[in-house]
Amino acid sequence: QQQVKQSPQSLIVQKGGISIINCAYENTAFDYFPWYQQFPGKGPALLIAIRPDVSEKKEGRFTISFNKSAKQFSLHIMDSQPGDSATYFCAASIGSGNTGKLIFGQGTTLQVKP
Amino acid sequence: GAVVSQHPSRVICKSGTSVKIECRSLDFQATTMFWYRQFPKQSLMLMATSNEGSKATYEQGVEKDKFLINHASLTLSTLTVTSAHPEDSSFYICSARDVSSGSHEQYFGPGTRLTVT
């Protein structure tokens, strides 16, 4: 119930292409869904996050699509660049009135080929 | 944006010794801090949650007597790995959240690479 399942495990995209990473969850109490980007040897950095009351959020080249009924959400990276090559983690938490413990997906290693 | 620092960035210690890792929120008050460990090519595994001034809550399977967490102020939390062994070698990452602000956002430190020889 507390799991967040992420796919694919790895992804190779050509420069300029669209990278799509998917996540699914079971716990309907989750109310905050962030995506993090992590470079080797560094801590994760928050990319974009969404609450379940909206179906889509866009920030620059990054878009989260959220399907509450299917309990799925995805990250789309438009016009992917070699600098986007990193590991991406989705996560979910119960934030309201809570400590906001994050449950992470397994991670997706993205390689953008020039 | 909110900044979280960790010190040291990497540490090598001998088996049986203890090592302390500091996590600081530089420009906000962190009412709640989290400690994670991450093995190569794996996801982050939450070890414990600490609230300022109270005892940490450890995740199942994490030895609280081995991984001592102190959250003595709103800007500092420490993780002490006691009697370290080679299997404790890992990447330790802290994160911080200001629950009182109502924000869900959690800010991560740069991580500490621990190698136990």
Radius of gyration of chain A: 14 Å
- Low-pLDDT stretches of chain A are none
The termini of chain A sit apart by 40 Å
Biggest beta-sheet profile of chain A: 6 strands, mixed
Number of helices of chain A: 0
What percentage of residues of chain B falls in helices of 4 or more residues? under 10%
Distance between the termini of chain B: 37 Å
Overall pLDDT confidence of chain A: 93
Shape call of chain A: globular
Spans of chain B of 5+ residues with little confidence (pLDDT < 50)? none
Describe the structure in your own words.
The complex is a heterodimer of chains A (114) and B (117). In chain A, 0% of the residues lie in helices and 54% in strands. Chain A has 114 residues and is mainly β. In chain A, strands 2, 4, 5, 9, 10 and 11 form a 6-stranded mixed sheet that branches. Chain A has a 5-stranded antiparallel sheet with strand order 1-3-8-7-6, with no helix packed on it. The mean pLDDT of chain A is 93. By secondary structure, chain B is mainly beta. Chains A and B meet through strand 5 of A and strand 5, strand 9 and strand 10 of B.
Sum this structure up briefly:
The complex is a heterodimer of chains A (114) and B (117). With 114 residues, chain A is mainly β. Chain A is built from no helices and eleven strands.
Descriptive key words:
heterodimer, A: 114 residues, five-stranded antiparallel sheet, B: 117 residues, mainly beta, seven-stranded mixed sheet
What's the arrangement of secondary structure elements?
The complex is a heterodimer of chains A (114) and B (117).
Chain A: E1 4-7, E2 10-14, E3 19-25, E4 33-38, E5 45-50, E6 56-59, E7 62-67, E8 72-77, E9 86-93, E10 102-104, E11 108-113
Parallel strand pairs in A: 2-11
Antiparallel strand pairs in A: 1-3, 3-8, 4-5, 4-9, 6-7, 7-8, 9-10, 9-11
Chain B: E1 4-7, E2 10-13, E3 19-25, E4 32-38, E5 45-51, E6 57-58, E7 67-73, E8 76-81, E9 90-97, E10 107-108, E11 112-116
Parallel strand pairs in B: 2-11
Antiparallel strand pairs in B: 1-3, 3-8, 4-5, 4-9, 5-6, 7-8, 9-10, 9-11
